[in-house]
């Protein structure tokens, strides 16, 4: 009875908060209709023991679903970093998880060649985490020098099957570095003062972002993401060097 009363009190308290949010025009969790096809890209499915232990799923179920819309909610917007990270995570699941048995979320290990949001999204989707204790970490950042501009490299491993994947993400192939530099300038200007960015530049930024997100998620750029399975011992040697 006490639990029911507490739940009703919490629900009652949330109603005025929701109404206030709508009154202020705050984001409702729905995305612009122009992204309907993008948000409908196939979900990724994992088993997850902790979800079963916590009683999070219906009786008899042991799987959890990660959608691209979850990534957008994690970042707060639909964007290129989210698309790249989600697509790379999907490639890892396809290459290492297989179709006969779903991979376990939280059992992957990610090594990112750059400290960047794309790596954070991959880690979010696969359930990798950074910890102060390297032995407990499953997400590492190991800067790789000498890479071409806007080229990202990752190693993703799935220890339960002793599988390891090397990934190269050539983001510069989307529109070229010069065009991306221009978009970055627009973004920096908008961050500093939204009123300083003209309507033409805003429209340009939005149009190009929409196109690039689709190019990534729908495989519209040849050579954009390259994957290659590597010997598991090669991965463990790299991991040992990071864990010291």
Describe the fold and architecture.
47% of the residues lie in helices and 15% in strands. The chain has nine helices and seven strands, in the order ααβαβααβαβββααβα. A hairpin with a 4-residue loop joins β5 and β6. α5 packs across α6 and α5 runs parallel beside α8. The longest helix is centred in the first third of the chain and has 22 residues. The radius of gyration is 21 Å and the shape is globular. About 5% of the residues have low confidence.
Name some characteristics of this structure.
two-stranded antiparallel sheet, alpha+beta, 47% helix
Tell me the layout of helices and strands.
Blueprint: H1 2-23, H2 36-39, E1 44-47, H3 49-53, E2 63-66, H4 68-75, H5 80-97, E3 109-112, H6 117-126, E4 139-141, E5 151-158, E6 163-170, H7 177-192, H8 199-217, E7 225-229, H9 232-243
Parallel strand pairs: 3-4
Antiparallel strand pairs: 1-2, 3-5, 5-6, 6-7
Report the helical percentage: 40-55%
Q: Please give the count of helices.
A: 9
Number of strands: 7
- What would the principal axes of the Cα set say about the shape? globular
Question: How would you summarize what this structure contains?
Answer:
The chain has nine helices and seven strands.
């Amino acid at each position: 009875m006490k639990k029911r009363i507490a739940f009703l009190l919490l629900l009652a308290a949330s109603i005025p908060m929701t109404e206030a949010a709508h009154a202020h025009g705050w984001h409702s969790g729905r995305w612009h209709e122009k992204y309907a096809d993008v948000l409908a890209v196939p979900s990724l499915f994992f088993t997850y023991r902790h979800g079963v232990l916590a009683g999070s799923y219906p009786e008899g179920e042991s799987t959890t679903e990660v959608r691209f819309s979850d990534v957008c909610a994690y970042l707060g917007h639909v964007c290129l970093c989210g698309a790249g990270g989600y697509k790379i995570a999907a490639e890892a699941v396809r290459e290492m998880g297989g179709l006969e048995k779903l991979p376990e979320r939280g059992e992957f290990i990610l090594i990112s060649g750059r400290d960047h949001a794309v790596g954070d999204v991959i880690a979010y989707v696969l359930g990798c985490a950074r910890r102060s204790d390297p032995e407990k970490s499953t997400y590492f950042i190991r800067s790789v020098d000498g890479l071409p501009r806007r080229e990202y490299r990752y190693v993703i491993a799935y220890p339960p099957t002793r599988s390891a994947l090397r990934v190269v993400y050539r983001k510069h192939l989307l529109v070229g570095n010069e065009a991306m530099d221009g978009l970055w300038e627009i973004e920096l200007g908008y961050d500093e003062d939204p009123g300083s960015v003209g309507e033409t530049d805003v429209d340009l930024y939005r149009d190009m972002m929409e196109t690039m997100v689709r190019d990534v998620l729908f495989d519209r750029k040849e050579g954009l993401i390259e994957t290659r399975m590597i010997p598991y011992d090669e991965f463990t040697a790299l991991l040992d060097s990071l864990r010291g």
